Amino acid sequence: MGSPVRAYSCTDCGKTFKRKGTLTQHRLIHTGERPFACTLCQVRFTTNKYRENLTGEKPHVCSTCGKGFSEAGSLKRHLRTHTGEKPYVCHHCGKNYNDSGNLQRHIRTHTGEKPYHCSECGRNFREKISLIHHQEVVHTEHPHRCDHCMKSFVSAFKLESHMQTRHPPNDPLKKPHVCSECGRGFSEAGSLKRHLRIHTGEKPYVCPRCGKDFTQSGLLQRHMRTHTGETPYHCLVCGMKFRHTISLKQHHLKNHKGETLGPVRMHQGPLPCPHCGEKFSTKALLKGHLQKTHKSRVHCPQCDKTFSTKGSLLVHQRKHTGERPYLCPQCGKSFSLTGSLKLHLRIHAGEKPYCCTYCDKSFTSKSHCNLHLRIHTGEKPYQCPDCGRRFRDGNVLKNHRRTHTGEKPFQCHVCDKAFAQWSSLKKHQDTHRLTQPVSVPRLPNPYLPHNQHVPYPYPSQTQW
After folding, report:
1. Per-residue pLDDT reduced to its tens digit, 392-449
2. Where are the stretches annotated Disordered (predicted)?
3. Is 270 or 159 the better-scoring residue by pLDDT?
């Protein structure tokens, strides 16, 4: 069976569609046209799905789990998660899928098709998420800004989704300033003026150093940091400094997972901490700082490491106990975290959604992709406080620091000799294998994240 013909192509981005109506709907993203008006407040939308937000009605209910849906088609797709039905078959390799969209994405691995086009640099991508990741990493100046909360986005589509979920339509009388191009309303004339630049292409804010121009002063200020080197955002956990809030957020997700403390700008705001004098802009940030930095913490009895919550401690203790309660149903490999299992399952599925924006190499996780990107960019964000040497990977820095501190955390369970590096302990334990049939415990690999430890495969006594 041949793949369906996708005869309708978008002249703006090159994306193709099977139906003319789907292309017409897609074109609204580029034109900014909003043909559907709310009957209550006259705010306009690109689709008529806004009605779901008005009524909240979900008449189509799953008989198995009780989940409701606004459309019958959505319920039909959902039911396949219960029945296991996979009616969509790849004609290249025979693999089955429960959704046509998943099949289309899979077929691109055979055809090499890259339908997602970056309007900034012209690069094409196989997955939409890869394009979004590329825009966030390479084109860091997000041109589409929300006039309500000033949050910025890489695409008009993401901005519109944000508007519909975070700022639903209100009384039109409260937004008297209406855009004549797309019908969007604003509460202040200044907000409308900024918005109109999206349609006119006007960029009145010019960088005095390189001549690059911007639609908003905030975008120019962020750009100027590339020249000045200013890093106004810092991590309250480890003290690392960043140029942009999004970089700090990514740092938190990668290095301090489970911590609830958000990004904080240095010396911003009138609220000082009574203990250390650090200033904060809101009571919530000050409260988070107090809980994180000055509140009593729970201690690990094995290594004396401290944690802000009991849940974080329980997860950490699996490193000592070796407990791995999450089992892969395909190969039997076990993991200490559900997130690690999800990443592992992508290996079986062949799924690598995160693509390098420089060489098209793909990865199962965003963190692995970000680490790889530093090979191209030369970025080494981790600096040794003792000698100033910089590293791409935080784990490599941890190992390096032991050359200064003399710490030797890896101990041989046969003779109690200690080592600074896991690889050194491995070599040492080989000497015991040559002299006596001793069962050597499995050791965690410090070069991997703690949730992806690979046991060192020493044989037991019965295998000698």
Report:
1. 888 888 888 888 888 888 888 888 888 888 788 888 888 887 655 444 444 444 333 3
2. 430-464
3. 159
The CB density around residue 107, as the number of other CB atoms within 10 Å, is: 19
What is the Cα–Cα distance from 263 to 414, expressed in whole angstroms?
A: 46
pTM, two decimal places: 0.33
Contact 377, 359 (CB under 8 A): no
- Domain spanning 27-126: CATH superfamily: Classic Zinc Finger (3.30.160.60)
Q: Are 223 and 214 in contact (CB under 8 A)?
A: yes
| CA geometry: angle 250, 256, 261, nearest 5 deg | 85
378: left (phi over 0), alpha (psi -120 to 50) or beta: left
425: left (phi over 0), alpha (psi -120 to 50) or beta: alpha
The CATH number that domain 401-463 falls under is 3.30.160
Specify the amino acid at residue 76: K
First-last CA distance in the chain: 55
- Strand-pair partners of 355: 362
pLDDT, tens only, 171-214: 444 567 777 777 777 777 777 888 787 777 787 888 777 777 77
Distance between CA atoms of residues 204 and 207, nearest Å: 10
